[in-house]
């Protein structure tokens, strides 16, 4: 699709020349001879220009008045203003309204082409950013926090109110895996900061002290060994937006003092620098530890805790909100089924019984991983309980597996991360193939798979029978 250009010019010869020139240059061009015609094109037609090339003074008024009138009512476009005489007040007003450039007539076509091309790239980038922000807003609305339990509903209602409020700092509490990262993204992308700046995330537990300081506050070239260029810290990069400090309880005490000063003064100084930079950042601080208790015991600065604690939102663990399984499990099955090209539609009652009986120490993160594993290894439309691998409580009825591998009860797999899912898949097929004397039909029956699927997996993993190994 060709880029669109609106020309607003009352001089007939110049307007015709510009229109013909840019139409030949593969632009889609509309030409308005006065402000009213331009207003109709912008507000009432489907024409959506990337660049607006306009004379400043027109028969029915000043182009700056139209620019101010349509601001916020039309998709972002870059304005290039042409005038036969320049005035300082008009130049200042044009820049204040966001004009891309202010050019005096006559203007060489070659130079004008360069400016129009640059303005087009700027408008395209701005629209892409707006589109991404809108997509994130839709993805991370308060409804993204899924669950029907009263506790989850209360958190969702609080999120709705917080996204409509202006707050400087907030503490997110809760056990690991309860969704603090998701809540932080909801607060940013559905909040008042989404259109003002980016969201920057920093895990304070993932970096050593010196690197954490450099990433947070930035540094000047030569400020330390290896600082070969200037680096803008995350506090600067998040200016206007949100800085999400995950695991803030792991931040060293001396850096906590430096962060407190930056938050109090709203200014930051890069390492090795002598200039303070003004910042306006919303801080979301998350921790799975009790920061209030840590501040009493000296493990976290009490002054920083009170500075951050404008509002505290604690997420409930999954063992206290097991009603949420009714919404979370189908959601995760749908997500992973799409990724793995599966068609899982049924969740047996024995699967539900095990899911409801488990206490989920890893919370939603653990549930997500369990469902992903089951989806990957399930065949057909039924979610298999073969790979749930949840510890069985004494009060839980033991369901004997309905499958058999040549009358041998089970295959043991490590869950300590030492074996990838693909390795588990290969190991299961290899062991079952061997136990069934390398008979594909018997192995397929034992694994409740089809022979075609099994042959594909055997070829994929290059599994050979005993005769082939000789």
Mean pLDDT: 87
Sequence stretches where pLDDT stays below 50 over 5 or more residues: 395-407
Gyration radius (Cα, Å) is 31 Å
Give helix % range. Answer: 40-55%
Write out the CATH superfamily name of the largest domain. P-loop containing nucleotide triphosphate hydrolases
Q: What is the number of domains?
A: 3
Structure description:
This protein is an alpha/beta fold and 470 residues long. It has three domains: 4-135, Response regulator (Rossmann fold, 3-Layer(aba) Sandwich); 140-316, Rossmann fold; 320-469, Helicase, Ruva Protein, domain 3. It is 45% helix and 13% strand. The protein has 19 helices and 16 strands. It has helices at 12-24, 35-44, 63-70, 88-96, 109-139, 150-163, 180-189, 209-217, 234-237, 253-265, 291-297, 302-308, 325-340, 349-357, 363-377, 421-435, 440-447, 451-460, 466-469; strands spanning 4-8, 28-32, 51-55, 57-58, 61-62, 78-83, 101-104, 169-173, 199-203, 218-219, 231-232, 242-246, 267-269, 276-278, 282-287, 312-314. β4 and β5 form a beta hairpin. α13 crosses α15 (363-377).
Summed up:
This is Sigma-54 factor interaction domain-containing protein. The protein is an alpha/beta fold. 45% of the residues lie in helices and 13% in strands.
């Amino acid at each position: 699709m060709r880029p669109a250009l609106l020309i607003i010019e009352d001089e007939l010869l110049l307007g015709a020349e510009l229109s013909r020139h840019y139409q030949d240059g593969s632009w889609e061009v509309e030409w308005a001879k006065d402000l009213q015609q331009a207003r109709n094109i912008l507000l009432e037609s489907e024409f959506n220009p990337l660049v607006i090339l306009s004379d400043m003074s027109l028969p029915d008024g000043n182009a700056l008045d139209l620019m101010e009138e349509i601001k916020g009512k039309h998709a972002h476009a870059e304005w290039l203003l042409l005038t036969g005489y320049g005035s300082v007040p008009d130049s200042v007003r044009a820049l204040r309204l966001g004009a891309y450039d202010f050019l005096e007539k006559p203007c060489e076509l070659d130079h004008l082409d360069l400016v129009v091309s640059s303005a087009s790239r700027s408008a395209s980038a701005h629209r892409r950013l707006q589109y991404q922000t809108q997509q994130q807003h839709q993805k991370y609305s308060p409804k993204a926090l899924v669950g029907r339990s009263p506790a989850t509903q209360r958190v969702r209602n609080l999120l709705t109110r917080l996204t409509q409020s202006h707050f400087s700092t907030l503490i997110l509490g809760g056990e690991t895996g309860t969704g603090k990262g998701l809540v932080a993204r909801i607060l940013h992308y559905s909040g008042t900061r989404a259109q003002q700046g980016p969201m920057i995330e920093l895990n304070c537990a993932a970096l050593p002290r010196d690197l954490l300081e450099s990433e947070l506050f930035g540094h000047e070239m030569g400020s330390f060994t290896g600082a070969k260029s200037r680096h803008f810290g995350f506090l600067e990069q998040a200016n206007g937006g949100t800085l999400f400090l995950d695991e803030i309880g792991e931040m060293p005490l001396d850096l906590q003092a430096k962060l407190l000063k930056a938050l109090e003064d709203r200014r930051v100084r890069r390492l090795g620098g002598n200039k303070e930079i003004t910042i306006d950042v919303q801080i979301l601080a998350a921790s799975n530890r009790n920061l209030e208790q840590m501040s009493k015991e000296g493990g976290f600065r009490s002054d920083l805790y009170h500075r951050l604690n404008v509002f505290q939102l604690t997420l409930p663990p999954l063992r206290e909100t097991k009603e949420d399984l009714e919404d979370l499990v189908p959601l995760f099955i749908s997500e992973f089924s799409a990724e793995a090209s599966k068609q899982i539609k049924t969740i047996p009652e024995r699967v539900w019984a095990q899911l409801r009986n488990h206490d989920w120490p890893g919370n939603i993160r653990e549930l997500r991983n369990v469902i992903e594993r089951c989806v990957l290894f399930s065949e057909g439309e039924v979610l298999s309980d073969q790979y749930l691998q949840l510890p069985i409580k004494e009060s839980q009825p033991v369901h004997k597996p309905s499958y058999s591998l040549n009358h041998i009860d089970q295959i043991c797999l490590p869950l300590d991360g030492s074996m990838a899912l693909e390795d588990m898949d290969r190991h299961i097929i290899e062991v079952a193939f061997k136990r069934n004397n390398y008979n594909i039909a018997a192995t397929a029956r034992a694994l409740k798979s089809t022979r075609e699927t099994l042959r594909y997996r055997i070829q994929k993993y290059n599994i050979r029978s005993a005769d082939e190994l000789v």
